[in-house]
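DM from R.C. (forwarded with permission)

"hey, sorry to bug you on a friday — could you get me a structure for this? deadline for the figure draft is monday and I only need the backbone to look sensible"
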Amino acid sequence: MRIDLAVEPDLQNFIGFLMESVRHLQGNAFRASHASLELIQRLRAAGACCGQPFSVRVQIQNYNLQVHWDENEFALAQTGAIEQSVIEQLRDSLRKSTESFDPEILTQRNEAMVRHLHETRERAERELAELQVELLSRQAELQISIREAETDPLTMLPNRRAFDEKLDQAFRHTMRQRVVPLSLMMLDLDHFKSINDEHGHQFGDAYLNKMAHILRSVIRESVDCAFRFGGDEFAMMIHADFSTACEKARQVILQMEGKVSIGIASIDQQTPHDLTLEGFIHQADSALYEAKHRGRGRAVVYLCHREDSQDCGSDCIAKASCV
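My reply, with the result:
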């Protein structure tokens, strides 16, 4: 037998039914009345009479009158001999008690239900707002963690991990859209180990930061990007053709007093469709090797789709072609 204890009158009717059942089942009414006080407290603590559905079940087991709710069990009283006719009578009495048409009780139930729904909605909205704030906080923390993981701690330039991710995205987009050219510049400080050994690590760190500052000064913020791989190795990703990359290389070499070698590779509408990202990086590396081979302090651009080799209009920049 089950009953719903949504409001206080439901609980009072239920306790009255239990006391009636104890009498009909020849139980000890005095002990049951004391036990009912504890039962009322436990039911209220569990959520009865709060305007929301709260189901309880009455059961007779091993001559014990018991009340069950959720995972809880409460033994109210011991019974005497049990006749089936008495059980049917009590079941009918419980059914009638739950089918109350008292206008006052119905009004209380409706008001309690409305209040409960309003409180539930406010609580849900509040919890949702708190979850959104927490989510934004977690997202900010995650972004900070990612940024720290992808940033060189000395120069604060993006590191090799960021380079791999950003270049892959830019390369795929450029090869697919064929609208804006993309140039990759690999840079290597000339004789940095000797500079570091002669002047000390502190001077070497300042020298690396100088290089990072110069790279930032020649790129367009939020469009192009400069990277530090580690040691004396740097890279720049320029969304422009090789002539623009050559000009930026000239500026870097000039500001670094001719102590940096640069290799440049570019892709545009004429680039073969079968070029891979690995091949693109290899082109820039080959151009860097050529710049060092020619005496350092210069830039070489690798152009696999051109056969001319006219210079770029600067003493410190030459252009090599691959046929």
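R.C.: lifesaver. The two ends are 92 Å apart (CA to CA).
me: no worries. The longest strand covers residues 182-189.
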